[in-house]
Amino acid sequence: MQFDVIIIGAGAAGMMCAAQAGQRGRSVLLIDHAAKIGERIRISGGGRCNFTNRSVGPENFLSQNPHFSRSALAQYGAQDFIKLVERHGIRHHEKTLGQLFCDDSAQDIIAMLKRECDKGGVKWAQPCTVEKISPRQGDARFELVTSRGKFRCASLVVASGGLAAPALGATPFGYQLAEQFNIPVVPPKPALVPLALPPETLAVLKPLAGLSFDTIATCGKHSPSFREQALATHRGLSGPAILQISSYWQMQEYKPGKKQPIALNLLPERDAEAWLEAHRKQNVVLASLLGDTLPRRFAQEWCAMQGITRPLAELSAKALEQVAHLLNAWPLMPSGTLGYTKAEVTLGGVDTRALSSKTMQANAVPGLFFIGEVTDVTGWLGGYNFQWAWSSGWVAGQHV
User: Fold this and answer.
1) 304 and 359 assigned to the same domain
2) Helix (H) or strand (E) holding 19
């Protein structure tokens, strides 16, 4: 069978692209190897889908080609998707930091995308395994051999996702296909992922598993800072602040030189040096003072770890300065991450320097498009990765 467009991957980006192409009058086949569509959408946001963020810009994404996302976000931004959600009558609410969630269920977003695909007359093949893809001469540029037979198309869109959440069927399919067509791939890594800590640090923090604390997380001089909660776990650290900074810690793998530790500000509202100086004359130990700001058990173990047990009045000015620096920038060198099984998304992917930012088409392979998580565009936590799916899918849908 022959189609104008075949899209591999019926996730957020794939369905958005299929709906747009179909509504432009293109004949579209949407292929997925899973029996259920949109599983990543269904489980996201605690089942309510953090579908976008009120404020989305290129600065909210990591890539080896940092300006690549600018064009797609300008063509189809957060406000455009919010209008689509509202047109379908999906009730939603804003949580912290501009994050938008469904009031009822993530299933509402899946149903909306399905209706949009139906409106465009999109055909579905699922579960369907793609066994081979070959380039062709003529109008039908690609031939796909699948578990449901052979298909041909003029435009082929790869929306197969990354390696995060392997339990939901993540595979390296998209990267392998890119390499088949000599399109470079930035080595993928887990992102938005909990961090593991070395044994000596974990020995202190492991008994505190389950305790969370407010912090500002950074990584090196050039990373943004994230003011959110961190969570001690039996393997290291998690929580929104840690997930956010994990992507920047991982990003260092692509650059020469020694990896920098992450830094946690344990007193985000205070200048630690001035705060300590104000309490210096009191006959109080730091653990007791910190216990008014941080969980008491955490304050006690942290002070013991740093060897800060004497009353503040007994510490020299230099010692107080060192303690203040630790409080405002506690350095931690992770031993690694908890891997793709715990990762929200994938860092790296199809090198966007080989794609057109205006269309998502491969520069050297006419008719071949890559969208969504399979590309080297990774968003912050908070709805940004879904917005990249909507934006890149919409853009490709206008040009296939």
Assistant:
1) no
2) helix 12-23
331 near 261, Cβ under 8 Å?
yes
105 & 213 share domain: no
Check whether residue 296 and residue 177 sit in a common domain: no
Q: How many residues does the chain have?
A: 400
What single letter denotes the amino acid at residue 197? L
The answer to whether residues 123 and 172 belong to one domain is yes
Between strands 262-265 and 330-332, the pairing is antiparallel
Q: What is the pLDDT of residues 14-26, one digit of tens each?
A: 999 999 999 999 9
Cis peptide before 166 (omega within 30 of 0): no
267 and 177, same domain (yes or no): no
Strands 262-265 and 212-218: antiparallel
Co-location of 164 and 49 in the same domain: yes
pLDDT, one tens digit per residue, over 154-183 is: 999 999 999 999 999 999 999 999 999 999
Supply the pTM of this predicted model.
Answer: 0.96
Of the candidates 392, 385, 376, the one whose C-alpha atom is nearest the C-alpha of residue 65 is 376
| Domain that residue 199 falls in | 195-337
Within a 10 A sphere around the Cβ of 77, how many other Cβ atoms?
17
- Do 260 and 388 belong to one domain? no
By DSSP bridging, strand 28-31 and strand 2-8 are parallel
**Is residue 179 domain-shared with residue 258, that is, in the same domain?**
no
> Helix (H, G, I), strand (E, B), or coil: what is residue 80?
helix
Beta bridge partners of 6: 29, 156
The secondary structure of residue 43, as a DSSP letter, is H
